[in-house]
Amino acid sequence: MKPILAITMGDPAGIGPEITVRALHHPETYEKCRPLVVGDASIMRKAIELLDIDDKVNAIDKVSDALFENGTIDVLDLHCIDLDKFEFGKVQSQCGNAAFQYIRKAIDLAMSNEVDGTVTAPLNKEALNLAGHHYDGHTEIYATFTGTKKYAMMLADENIRVIHVSTHVSLRKACDLVKKDRIIEVAELIADACKQFGIPHPRIGIAGLNPHSSENGMFGWEEAQEIIPAVEELKSRGFNVDGPVPPDSIFAKARCGQYDGCVAMYHDQGHIPLKVCAFNWNKETGKMESASGVNITLGLPIIRVSVDHGTAFDVAGKGIASDSAMVLSIDYATRMAKHRLGIKE
């Protein structure tokens, strides 16, 4: 009854392979799900050797051949990488293409119900585009190949869960995109997501756009014309929402447990507080102790959870990358898959 999760290896030249190996080395991972890596078996073997652990790779061609046993990493082997031309920490078109092919395969497996959810390691956008795949990132690839029109990015770390009204646009355009209907749409998405995480009656905080949420019109008009009408309509539909909450305090309140989810008005408003909380660098050791935020694409017909950090080419191949975000991503995907499958914890 444990859900099957397809875990894409990410850009092979980044830290994706090693954080995947680390996460699958934990016995606890196999106690809650059945993980299957979609990638290149040869790269996963290099990552195992790099980390000096005794796990083995089971290279397979179809899901039914997976063993799902701790100590053996099942890899759906797509044979995308020429090892003679491969190098950790470098932007390479073959790696950008490989990362894209892993994602496409994972989406296909989920859409055909061969797996119950997907987890993605980071890709490199420069390598992706160098390979001829012109997407802004994972979210747009998933939306394209699942035929999804309405979707949104949600970030999560401990008590902070945040969804965005807009993401990869200029700050000027982001202000123009603060619209009542979009605010309602993303608030509904994060409320539904919280229920999938086991929160039956989620409390949603909705951020203002302007300083002090405009101070009754002194610093802007978006709150009065778009955000407050959205909050009022959500309340009329039975949602437990609060707002507009001043942007400089909403995330402190969320971290203290006052909100189960937050609606941010633009990319950096939501990303900065989460990453400040989730990314912890140890000055003495020169290592990242944890990078635990996750990125969940809501509105898709399938489950997609990702680490909320990049390929980290500067440390790739050194065996020092933290797997905390990958472990958390697997946990979130497992909980969402169990909810969809009707499996009780």
Describe this structure in words.
By secondary structure, this protein is of the alpha/beta class. It contains twelve helices and 14 strands. The strands form two sheets. Strands 3-4-2-1-5-14-13-6-7-10-8-9 form a twelve-stranded mixed β-sheet, sandwiched between helices. Strand 6 and strand 7 form a beta hairpin. Helix 4 crosses helix 6 and helix 8 crosses helix 9. The longest helix is centred in the N-terminal third of the chain and has 19 residues. The mean pLDDT is 94.
The secondary-structure class comes to alpha/beta
Oligomer: single chain
Strand tally is: 14
Strand content: 15-25%
Poorly predicted regions: none
Nearest-integer average pLDDT: 94
Shape: globular
Order of helices and strands: EHHEHEEHEHHEEHHEHEHEHEEEEH
Largest sheet: 12 strands, mixed
Please tell me how large the radius of gyration is.
Answer: 20 Å
Distance N to C terminus: 11 Å
**Going across the major beta sheet, what is the strand order?**
3-4-2-1-5-14-13-6-7-10-8-9
Q: What percent of the residues sit in helical stretches (DSSP H or I)?
A: 25-40%
Helical run tally: 12
